[in-house]
Amino acid sequence: MARWHRLITATPADVWAVLGDGSLYARWVVGTQDTWERDEAWPALGSELGYTVKLGPWTMKGRTISRLCEPEKRLELEAVNPLGSARIGLRTLRWGDDCLVLVDEHPLRGPATPLHNTALDALVRWRNRHMLARLDRAVKERAEQAGQTEGSAHTAGAGWAGTSAGTSHGHP
Asked: What sign has the CA pseudo-torsion 22, 26, 28, 30?
């Protein structure tokens, strides 16, 4: 399994606000060009997101299915495309005032499954390292946007500094 982790300076609720917003999926999932919600229940069990991966002139469409959803704790996804499917497990753990995010990923079904080896794991770990860095940035950007939105309703500098991201689902 390709495992990676990252400590994010935010609460599990702040991280989950990004994980649970289907419109932000392409912001943090490396290789994803575009996404769209296939239903309005994301990330509830069984809900789906469509996605497009683009590499040069090559484009592939797929879907990501939520297989297990424990808000603010655990999200298990299956990414399905013409090459097969992969399991992506995400866990969020409170770590003091911060959030430790753990990810592990491996081929699940299809032609890529027999090709699973340590070299592939190294490549997926590299991707997951970048994916968690992008998740970290998306969480921070969302918190900044929420702070600016909250701050605009207050007098300058009063009452909103240091608050965590609310529940707004702003689009980048």
From this structure: positive
Torsion of CA 50, 80, 132, 7, to 10 degrees: 110
pTM: 0.81
Torsions phi, psi of 126, nearest 5? -60, -45
Q: Sign of the CA dihedral 10, 102, 42, 23?
A: positive
DSSP code at position 38: S
- Half-sphere exposure (CA, 13 Å, Cβ side) for 6? 21
32, 49 in Cβ contact below 8 A? no
What pLDDT does residue 149 have?
67
Output the CA torsion sign for 115, 133, 62, 64: positive
What 3-state DSSP class applies to 165?
A: coil
45 CB neighbour count, 10 Å cutoff: 12
Q: Residues of the chain with pLDDT > 90: what percent?
A: 65
